## 1
Amino acid sequence: MKLAVIDIGTNTCLLLIAESERPGEMKVISDTHSIARLGAGVDSSKLIQPESYERLQKILHSFKNILDESKVDYICATGTSVLRDAANYDEIVEKVKNEFDISIEILSGIDESKWSYQGAVCGLKSDELQGAITALDIGGGSTELSIGKNGKYVSGKSINIGAVRIKERFLSTINEASIKSAREFIRSELQKTFTDPLQAKRLIAVAGTPTALAAMKLQLKTFDAEKVNGLVLTTPDLIRLCEEVLSLSNQELTEKYPAIHPSRADILPAGAIILEEVITFLGLSEIHVSTYGLRYGIMIREFERSMKSSSNEWLVTRE
């Protein structure tokens, strides 16, 4: 069985194609990353702009070519924070359906936290899944923080502190005052959302912010998922990298660290602040970086639904 998952987020649009013959194993055929910035301006206007949809449209055309060549059995497309927030979400969903014959399932914040967790822990072996694991997914519009035990999701929440949202609201100009305001807002949202202390001992972080910071730590010339996946970032690493990201212009950042996508550079300062504040809030000294995430969790969901069977441990191989 060969399936495709399209993850339409506030900043990125991702395509994962994988096949599986039995529960607990998947082979990745293709894992394609593109940046549409569909959520540009949505935090203030509550509307997805025509130019934002045009960027998504171009990406979906390129995805359609990949899908036609791959001959998948089924396509599952999901939308997250940007489509939850936008007043004209139904227009976007209808356009995608009419033009590409792709139906978009808009995930609730809770569902996003659940499947982000499953994606974060996929690829881990049974001995690595023992005990409590917390998963962090910093998106463009929202951030999901989830807790599971022995590979099973227990609970999670979605908070409106995504990297695009924080950048547009506080960090259009980066200075001491704007950084202070962003940090205070993030702390306030975390404290309001999690009134009881989170018993986090091990944290896996997915999505563009932690993977970009990991690429910086490794000083990669081009992004290498195999090198980034599983890398540990300590609190001193995060403090140093966050300070550097905040001190460099977008051009300086991408010239010094060419593995960072130019379209991500402008929101990386916001993402780095979110990540640092979450680590401080949880009282942790390190994070484990994962290149998996929501799209992998949704892929697991679709395989298990089709096979009518489940597995706590999903191992990932590549062609």
## 2
Amino acid sequence: MSVVEAGLRGDLKLTGRAHDVLSWSGERLTAEVGDLSVVMDGDADYPPALAELADAPDVLFVRGTIPGGVMVAAVGTRRCTTYGTRIAGAVGRAVAAAGWPIVSGLARGIDAAAHRATIPVGVTVAVLGSGVDRVYPAEHTRLADEIIDGGGAVISEYPPGTRPDGWRFPPRNRIISGLSSAVVVVEAPIKGGSLITATHALEHGRPLFAVPGDIDRETSRGCNLLIRDGAFPVLDID
């Protein structure tokens, strides 16, 4: 019995919406999303690093192609400074130039800067807290298309049509960490999604890097505290 059949039979823990999507015909998938593919835990193309997690998603909805091998996450605050934007771009270019795809969350700020800097050099993967057909924020729809056109992927554990409700984003951060062999926090306050991703990185046994910043800057406080608690400081891009 195939994994998809197992999902349809109710042998996997799927939401009702995900169960419905698995039953769609290829024609309907094309009409609804276009280039959507469905990757199940157990499939040959399911990311092996993600499959190791105890709470790995049973299904990934994918636009584009998930790259294999080592990937590196670059995450940070939406309310980033010029310094954070510059460093995020430098990290994205350096990691991509080394041949490793960058993973991030397609959010405003640090995420978008890392994605954009990576595209001309290499491959990047965006993990959404919504359906892959409901890019959030909406102004990053073109960026999502550029990621796919560049050989990367836009992925989600949520089926097409899922709204970007706020409570969906913290769980998606485990996927960002789970896909990655290391996590770099570029700029972050003491609360927010970046610190959640950092916590997941520690739980997953991933090396955690943080970029230091001014001690009186709120958006650097999270990174500085991570370094205090043992994260590797990023002292130069090399």
